[in-house]
């Protein structure tokens, strides 16, 4: 499955029969809501992939998906606005755990919004 932030591998087995049935019957491309347990793993070449073991999968319309993307991007921008590891305890904890510049989150949120507007993302400097 793909969203504005990347590709997610979704797999369901015998213990998720409803989700497995939905994946089997789904006609791509389709907009879906997936609720499940995430997992990350690193490939031999160092790439980090995200997979989700779905508990439920629901087909949604394009307008619903677009509203979710906008809401997520706006909330992300709000959270990183006050990201100062010197004054914000949680910002410091996030920096230690994830070691990513805050600008990465701002850029990803802006790219997601630009994609909805049909604009090409700005090239990285």
Cα end-to-end separation: 28 Å
Main-sheet strand order equals: 1-2-4-3
Given the structure, what is the number of helices?
Answer: 4
What number of structural domains do the residues give? 2
Main sheet, how many strands, which sense, barrel?
A: 4 strands, mixed
Give me the secondary-structure category.
alpha+beta
- From the spread of the alpha carbons, the general shape counts as globular
Strand content: 25-35%
Gyration radius from CA atoms, angstroms: 17 Å
Mean pLDDT: 85
Low-pLDDT segments, ≥5 res: none
The counted number of beta strands is 4
Residues in helix, %: 40-55%
Order of helices and strands: EEHEEHHH
Offer a concise description of the structure.
Helices cover 43% and strands 26% of the residues. With 125 residues, the chain is an alpha+beta fold.
Structural features, described:
- The protein has 125 residues and is α+β, with helices and mostly antiparallel strands.
- It folds into 2 domains: 1-60, no CATH class; 61-116, no CATH class.
- It has 4 helices and 4 strands; from the N terminus they run ββαββααα.
- It has a 4-stranded mixed β-sheet, with helices on both faces.
- Strand 1 (2-3) and strand 2 form a beta hairpin.
- Helix 2 packs antiparallel against helix 4 (102-116).
- The longest helix is centred in the middle third of the chain and has 20 residues, at 62-81.
Entry keywords:
single chain, 125 residues, alpha+beta, 2 domains, 4-stranded mixed sheet, 4 strands, 26% strand
Question: How would you summarize the topology of this molecule?
Answer:
Layout: E1 2-3, E2 6-10, H1 17-25, E3 31-42, E4 48-60, H2 62-81, H3 89-98, H4 102-116
Parallel strand pairs: 2-4
Antiparallel strand pairs: 1-2, 3-4
